[in-house]
Amino acid sequence: MISVLFAVLTALSNGCASVLQRRAAMEVPDSEAMRLSLMTRLVRQKVWLAGIGLVIVAAVCQAIALATGPIAVVQPIFVIELPLTLLVAGLVMRVRADAAVWSGVSAVTAGLALGMAAAAPVEGSDTVEGVAWIPALLVTGVFEAGLIVAALRTRGNLRAALLGLAAACGYALTAALMKDAMANLDDGGVVALLASWQLYATAAAGVGALFLLQNALQAGSLVAVQPMLTLGDALISILYGVTLFDEQLRTGWWLLPELAALALIATGCARLARTPLARGTLAPPPPPPRVR
């Protein structure tokens, strides 16, 4: 229950951070895409810094969740970040959620429940043997590089989707490294944690994923980014859990309800991202009236 609780808190913090970061990214011209100057422009915006603050809160909550539960359980819970964000935004803005929002929330929630029940993840090891990280990091690097190269050859929502998937891969890698790093607390305490290479690799992967996400949000709409980010993070995290941490999922005919769950989640995320509430929370503020 502790891991589930902190996974939900992580999803809420990450979702709200995405909204703030998207609003900031919309103020940056397309000419700054995939350049360090993009981050220079963003860091000057208070709304973006507020989003980064929420990212830090999410990182702490995620570390606690991964330290107390399997990655195949914790990471899929993050698919609820968009529904939670929109519902909270509606409360803050005093905007009543319409039927489209509730149908999207219902689809994501039902898909998550169905997927978790069908897969029934079983916890494996808390640590990863050092040698096992070598092929995992190589495959991840090649996959992300391919996505980035493909994204640079496109524009608009297709670029946003490709970069969103690349960011999802980076966040999934961050989670796997973080879980492995947190296992050092049980073996040698804080000193062992600070001495582990996984801790610093977690920071590097997280920064890289953040950079890719900013570019994805700047390149296209939330409806292009969010499904790829949400599903990509969950699926790749499960893959890391199975291959690196020996976590087990049900297969065979159970794959049918698992695929149905993925379809429900993808449909719900796409529907939510198209709602007026999502567009309203992400739209930049209107310009001040001119003095005649």
Structure commentary:
This protein is mostly helical. Helix content is 78%, strand content 0%. It has helices at residues 2-25, 36-42, 46-68, 71-74, 81-93, 99-119, 130-152, 156-182, 184-195, 197-219, 222-244, 255-274, 276-282. The longest helix is centred in the middle third of the chain and has 27 residues, at 156-182. It is globular, with a radius of gyration of 19 Å. 46% of the residues are buried.
Please specify the SSE layout and strand pairing.
Layout: H1 2-25, H2 36-42, H3 46-68, H4 71-74, H5 81-93, H6 99-119, H7 130-152, H8 156-182, H9 184-195, H10 197-219, H11 222-244, H12 255-274, H13 276-282
Helix pairs in contact: 1-3, 1-5, 3-8, 5-6, 6-12, 7-8, 8-10, 8-11, 11-12
Structural category: mainly alpha
Could you tell me how far the N terminus lies from the C terminus, measured between alpha carbons in angstroms? 60 Å
Helix content: over 70%
Number of strands: 0
| Helix and strand run | HHHHHHHHHHHHH
Largest sheet: none
- Quaternary state reads single chain
How large, in whole angstroms, is the Cα Rg? 19 Å
Summarize the structure.
This protein is mainly alpha-helical and 292 residues long. It has 13 helices and no strands.
